[in-house]
Amino acid sequence: MHAVRSPEHSGTTLDALGSRAVSSTLAGAFGVAALFVAVLALVFAIQALRARTVSSDHGSPTALPQPEPQPAQPEAKPGTVKSELRKLGKDLEVTRGELKETLQHLAVVRYDAFGETGGKLSWSMAILDDNGDGVVLTSINSRADARTYAKEIKSFTSESKLSPEEEEALETLRKESEQP
Q1: C-alpha span between 75 and 82 (Å, rounded)
Q2: pLDDT, position 76
Q3: What is d(CA 154, CA 157) in angstroms, rounded to the nearest whole number?
Q4: Which portions of the sequence form the region Disordered (predicted)?
Q5: What is the rounded distance in angstroms from the CA atom of residue 107 to the CA atom of residue 127?
Q6: What is the CA angle 49-51-53, rounded to 5?
Q7: 63 DSSP β-pair partners
């Protein structure tokens, strides 16, 4: 670096590169500040223009545009989320109706049909839908043989005579159906 004597400042030595660096930094700072002020002015001008437009449209400078009232239940366009939800709702109603007719309630009573066998190998099982329609299956096991019976049930009753164990299984499901 070379020190330069300035004729204006007799006796003062200035660094030529240093003075240029200070003045370019200062100029850059002023430039950034000027740009910031210009951006702020632009933002305020845009807001003022919007406020004037809103006041001329609605008669009040603070009034905001109001949304248009929507009809109570507009018809959904096919393929939209609303139409798909409505379709799913209808499908769900149909499925619930079909579900009421499925054999989904089950009660089993195990017992010893004969005194000679132990372990409660005989059983009666009621399988019904929500309406009390279905079947009672019974398996009676002894040392010599096993027999299985099926009896139709309509509204928790049967045209065939039911054994006490079959009645117990049926009564269990009847009580369950009466509970909320």
Answers
A1: 9
A2: 64
A3: 5
A4: 56-82, 156-180
A5: 7
A6: 70
A7: none
Measured CA to CA, the distance from residue 140 to residue 113 in angstroms comes to 6
- Torsion angle, CA of 70/71/72/74, rounded to 10 degrees? -110
pTM: 0.50
Distance CA 67, CA 57 (A): 14
Which residue's entry shows tokens 């398996």? 139
The tens digit of pLDDT for each residue in 49-100 reads 776 665 555 554 555 556 666 556 666 677 789 888 999 999 999 998 888 8
Cα–Cα dist 160/20, whole Å: 114
Q: Scan for tokens 């299985």, then name that residue.
A: 148
Name every residue whose Cβ is closer than 8 Å to that of residue 65 and which is 6 or more positions away in sequence.
Answer: 54, 57, 58
